[in-house]
Specification:
The strands form four sheets. Strands 3, 5, 6, 9, 10, 17 and 18 form a seven-stranded mixed β-sheet that branches. This protein has a six-stranded parallel β-sheet with strand order 13-12-11-14-15-16, with helices on both faces. The chain is an alpha/beta fold. Helix 3 packs across helix 8. The protein contains nine helices and 18 strands. Bound molecules: zinc ion (2 copies).
Length: 341
Amino acid sequence: MKAMVLDTIVKLEENPEPLHLSQVEDPFPSECEVLIRVSACGVCHTELDEIEGRTPPSRFTMVLGHQVVGRIAGLGTHAKHFKVGDRIGVAWIFSACGKCKFCRAGNENLCTDFRGTGRDANGGYAEFMTVREDFCYPIPEQFSDAEAAPLLCAGAIGYRSLRLSNISGGQILGLTGFGASAHLVLKMVRHRHPDVAIFVFARSDKERAFALELGAAWAGDTTDSPPHLLDAIIDTTPAWKPGVEALKNLEPGGRLVINAIRKEERDKDALLSLDYPTHLWLEKEIKSVANVTRRDVSEFLQLAAQMRIKPEVEEFALGDANRALIQLKAAKIRGAKVIRL
Ligand SMILES: [Zn+2]
Ligand SMILES: [Zn+2]
């Protein structure tokens, strides 16, 4: 089969073509796995973190991609939940042990044996992939393959970050960074909590205009002062400064939810500007969002179907994956990027 593979960690500034289109052996499903013929795979910021080594693949070569939509093309001998031809999705959670205290409590996202799709096992930048059947999700029929793909990561993790924000009616929610996940969170909040005002902090004019178009009450640059303090802010940026700025803009008791798998090193000195009374005093909280559980993915897909969410997607051919990644890195974002097979 054809796949875009990563051979080693690279710096994207030095090598803008980290993935290579290769011919690799077709995968074969083991007992409880299914074989999927991939039709769409979302492009995520986590791929940049993998390529540049902030959350490196656990082996090479690796096929990246963890927002996978396709049809069942084969079944392992013990696989029985699906039949050949069923349309399913695969998300960031490739597997977890199922036995540890975290798994037993429903926090499989915290499992020490958590395996990420496209990081610890081959993912969806390929014509086929295999995965355990109990880590697949039926895709609601109203979504096209390309529309469903970004829901599987950006949407599901956005849903988790929104839950962790504890936002409720009449409050103000901030979003700092306005990529694929944040724009879905905005749509979720508009639907679920129409009386929650949303303030968006984003670097580019385009992102700010897009946020206002989608119903944000206010949009400004990352360092702008908003007209009110906020009850919670979800930070989806790879940098430190937006988080520090966000803490300053929180109400007493407010919560900063950091929805980023890793932060980049280059602006870490922004943390030296942390001033205890300005940024942390009065019971402000900081919480990270780690991975995603199957429950988050399933619940979000149902919610997205009820809400008739239509993600804005931009499609790329498999061989064009590098171009999609470079654009993502440069924050040329309007909605989500999806590889079409
Ligand atoms: Zn992702
Ligand atoms: Zn576990």
